[in-house]
Design a protein that fits this description.
Chain lengths: ~700, ~230
């Protein structure tokens, strides 16, 4: 291992690391624009120049591997002078429009100009001006500010997997653009905004709405897919202004999917901000007491078996726990959290987890995707698979539709029955899995929400068993959920009890009259037409499908408005934190259920969130390990049976609108119009 | 030079001629499997030879042929100014106005062009026959000023010779390319100023065996001197 001296600190580093990385280990930070540790090295901004003894010229530290006995000075006069020069050149064509730039206050160039720039420029000639480029509804461009670091080019090429941004022209006329100014089609395109070290690429929906220093920053967890992306919610007053990713190497690295980033304006529209009670066939505003009275009046005398409860896709574990306890107190076993009827086995935790873990994907050497389109269902997780693909030496097979997943794969079959062929070893991909050291399979919701899903789950178990996917600390059996609340609710045990009805049973029962009262806790992705005759209590935050059929609406809090625990698809329990207060009369969900239980005379035994969490920890030990994954025991699950030879129906047809929040979002509506309905050309001058 | 973009008016389609298709196969075969994208410059050149300029459908076709993102092809096409992104006349006159040519009188050459053709840089004559372009260093500074007409270089030009050259081009019988003052290759004007003698005659031939012996003796002496010291 080479030894070198950086700013007088002797350090031994792995061979092949660059001077910049070594300097970071030695505690010297080197300024940079183009270098990013998750992207390939470009070495074109020259800001990271350092002085290396015996080298005639300053060296670009981001691109220079360390050598034995190097003596590096990162803060010497020569190094600083070199950077002063670079900064002066960068500022030649950079407009000094910081006061009207959205990046102002969180701009790398601004910060580093403070350290390395002159107070006056010597350049008196005309600055160049560059025409702004259209990059879609998420990324706004002010290209005159661009310093051509090419981070965005490298990001969409390497991590996004869609090479759509490029640098055209050359020299002073270099321009960053998409081909013919088409919109970026990556589900991760918003990350180029974070990567851009200047204000050239900015967040379009957030444009000119706030300054970074006036925002309150709350660390939380995203719930718009099941990845559990770590986010930072930036709010001002009672409004969420934007959502940014937070570093978590195990989950999302430092990326954030477009929906999770830009659906936050949906938190402002279509909100339920006061209770409603249906009177004379119409939902009318009411007080909390009136709403509770209406429920108590209806529930009086109804036997527990005639009550059903469904939990939606973005509900926190505390509320689920409270509702489970309330239903138990009411004598109902009709509880289910699987709105889509996913055929996972709630008794065997390993049957519904992404056991390999997201970071574990990087160690897999054979991946079988069954009935899942991770690019749409979990773009962050898909980026991990792509990362693994780019590292080389991995075989990826897909059973399902042949769509562009941003990496190459063997398309095994479009039909579900190919799963049984792999299970019995008659398909050659079974051998690939057997030969692999760390094989993994991913069962998607498309595979688990069919009539024959129990058999597919069983076949999944058989594949895992027969190809040695589970051995030692490696478990290659994975289920990719699409609902953030799902794993948590399964851990809580929000599934039909002894003789209880599942989602389909409750809905059918409501239609036939077997179920008289249905409690929907944020459940909107169901066939609400079947609920017409039942008495529907809807507790949630958006006036979506569930609220439309409700007889009583209890306004709850969205994920940014409450402290809650969410368990992602890996089984990683994470805490979301309240960034703002719920609007109007809306309340945190667990406390609504607690208050209702008191009115119903079945008072739940907790008065604070901490007490609910204590109950959660008692229910399942997984909640005791916040931010960690508790490895699930590998047990037999699934059923034998034949698998029908038919194509999968995918749960996420439109990535941009999957839940009440994103359906209420104007940005997501624009994305839907542009990407799903097929308009990707540039808007005209009179547009909007 | 300014920002280079694709032309506004583009043809609907583009297809390589059969002859070019054969050449493309040979070009691609030159590169190892997985590195087909290396053929992008030759293919853009072929497309330009076919149409006179690089069209959008040609860029799309090349991207598809080489299995590379279309933006990468656009990057190359816009990087090299030799690729014309706008239609040009049958004859494309490219005048170098970089330093060497300018010092040697490229202004006169430019004036001759605009006087004779009645057009400025970037324009095409009304009959669509000739396009006049300004280029950066054409890479033939020794024989400045230089003008490229299509693939041929005409060198050592001045106002008169450039005017004559345009006349012959218009008449359809351009002269052989090369220096207008009769220089051979890059040799100096007038007589040679160096290497004027026959090296075999004047330089005494060195006997390598003797030289080697002398060298070894010197080394031996140095070694002994060191030992004694």
């Amino acid at each position: 291992m080479p030894k070198l001296t950086i700013d007088g600190v002797e350090i031994e580093v792995d061979p092949g690391v660059t001077i910049l990385q070594a300097a970071e280990q030695a505690g010297s930070e080197i300024p940079r624009f183009c270098y990013h540790d998750r992207l390939s090295i470009a070495g074109n901004c020259r800001m990271c120049l350092v002085e290396v003894e015996k080298s005639p010229k300053p060296v670009a530290s981001c691109a220079m591997p360390v050598g034995e006995g190097m003596v590096v000075h990162t803060k010497s006069e020569k190094a600083v002078k070199a950077r002063n020069g670079v900064m002066e050149f960068l500022l030649i064509n950079h407009p000094l429009d910081c006061p009207i730039c959205d990046q102002g206050g969180e701009c790398d160039l601004q910060d580093q100009a403070l350290a390395f720039g002159n107070d006056k420029g010597r350049y008196v000639e005309q600055k160049r001006a560059v025409k702004d480029k259209y990059m879609g509804p998420i990324v706004s461009t002010i290209m005159t500010r661009c310093i051509h670091c090419t981070r965005c080019v490298r990001f969409v090429d390497e991590i996004g997997g869609v090479a759509e941004i490029g640098a055209t022209g050359r020299g002073e006329d270099t321009e960053i653009t998409t081909y013919l100014e088409q919109a970026l089609t990556s589900e991760l395109s918003g990350n180029v905004v974070d990567l851009c070290p200047v204000g050239a690429l900015t967040n379009k929906p957030y444009a000119f709405t706030a300054r970074s220093w006036e925002l309150r920053k709350t660390e939380s967890v995203d719930v718009l897919d099941a990845v559990g992306t770590n986010i930072r919610v930036d709010s001002r007053g009672r409004e969420v202004m934007r959502v940014l990713p937070r570093l978590n190497e195990w989950v999302n690295e430092e990326w954030l999917a477009d929906k999770s980033r830009n659906a936050c304006d949906g938190l402002k529209y279509q909100r339920l901000d006061q209770p409603y009670v249906r009177r004379d066939g119409k939902l009318q505003p009411a007080e909390w007491n009136e709403a509770f009275d209406a429920i108590a009046g209806k529930l009086n005398g109804v036997s527990g078996q005639k009550i059903g409860a469904l939990v939606g896709d973005t509900v926190d574990c505390e509320s689920t726990m409270a509702l489970k306890d309330l239903m138990t107190a009411l004598g109902s076993e009709n509880t289910d959290c699987r709105q889509d009827g996913a055929a996972v086995d709630p008794k065997v935790r390993a049957s519904y987890l992404f056991n390999t873990t997201i970071a574990g994907i990087e160690e897999a050497d054979a991946i079988l995707l069954i009935g899942t389109n991770p690019r749409k269902e979990a773009p962050i997780l898909n980026a991990r698979i792509r990362k693994r693909f780019l590292a080389g030496g991995v075989k990826i097979g897909v059973i399902g539709d042949a769509t562009d997943l941003t990496y190459d794969y063997d398309h095994i079959s479009g039909s579900a029955d190919a799963v049984s062929k792999i299970a019995d070893g008659s398909h050659p991909f079974a051998q690939i899995l057997k030969d692999a050291e760390r094989p993994m399979l991913v069962l998607g919701m498309a595979a688990l929400t069919r009539a024959d899903s129990a058999a597919i789950l069983g076949a999944g178990y058989a594949i895992a068993d027969s190809t040695g996917m589970v051995s030692g600390d490696w478990n290659g059996f994975n289920v990719l959920h699409t609902a953030a609340a799902r794993v948590g609710a399964l851990d809580v045990g929000f599934v039909p009890g002894e003789g209880g009805k599942d989602t389909r049973g409750i809905l059918d029962g409501a239609a036939s009259g077997d179920v008289e009262v249905v409690y929907l806790l944020g459940a909107d992705e169901i066939d609400t037409a079947k609920l017409k005759d039942a008495f529907v209590i809807y507790q949630g935050h958006h006036g979506d499908a569930g609220a439309h059929v409700a007889d009583v609406i209890l306004p709850g809090a969205a994920y940014t408005e409450k402290n809650g625990t969410y368990v992602n698809t890996e089984g990683r329990a994470q805490l979301g934190q309240r960034a703002i207060f719920p609007p109007g009369d809306a309340r945190e969900d667990w406390s609504i259920i607690r208050a209702l239980s008191e009115r119903l005379g079945k008072t739940l035994p907790y008065d604070s969130l901490e007490q609910v969490r204590a109950k959660l920890r008692d229910t399942s030990p997984d909640f005791t390990h916040i931010d960690d994954v508790v490895t699930a025991e590998w047990e037999k699950f699934g059923a034998a049976g034949s698998i029908e030879a038919s194509a999968f129906t995918y749960p996420v047809a439109n990535y941009y609108q999957t839940d009440p929040i994103s359906r209420a979002s104007r940005t997501m509506a624009q994305c839907t119009q542009d990407f799903v309905m097929g308009k990707t050309e540039k808007a005209t001058g009179t547009h909007g | 030079m300014s920002t280079r973009n694709l032309a506004k008016n583009q043809p609907e389609t583009f297809a390589f001629t059969d002859e070019h298709k054969v050449r493309i196969e040979k070009i691609i075969a030159k590169y190892p499997e997985g590195y087909q994208a290396s053929a992008v410059i030759p293919l853009l050149d072929l497309a330009q030879r076919q149409d006179g300029w690089v069209t959008k459908p040609a860029i799309d076709l090349i991207a598809e042929t080489l299995g590379m993102p279309v933006i990468r092809v656009l990057e190359v096409a816009t990087f090299y100014t030799m690729f014309n992104l706008n239609p040009v006349g049958k004859c494309h006159i490219q005048v170098c106005t970089s330093l060497s040519c300018w010092l040697r009188g490229s202004n006169d050459v430019v004036k001759a062009c605009s006087d004779k053709l009645g057009i400025k840089f970037g324009e095409t004559t009304a009959d669509g026959a000739i396009t006049l372009s300004e280029v950066e260093c054409a890479g033939a500074c020794v024989n400045a000023p230089v003008v490229a007409v299509g693939d041929e270089y005409y060198e050592d030009l001045n106002y008169e010779t450039m005017s004559k050259l345009i006349d012959t081009i218009k008449a359809g019988n351009p002269p052989a390319p090369g220096s207008a003052v009769g220089r051979q290759g890059a040799e100096p004007e007038g007589n040679r100023t160096s290497l004027t003698t026959d090296p075999t005659q004047t330089t005494p031939m060195q006997d390598l065996a003797v030289a080697k012996q002398k060298h070894e003796e010197a080394q031996e002496a140095a070694r002994k001197a060191k030992e004694n010291a």
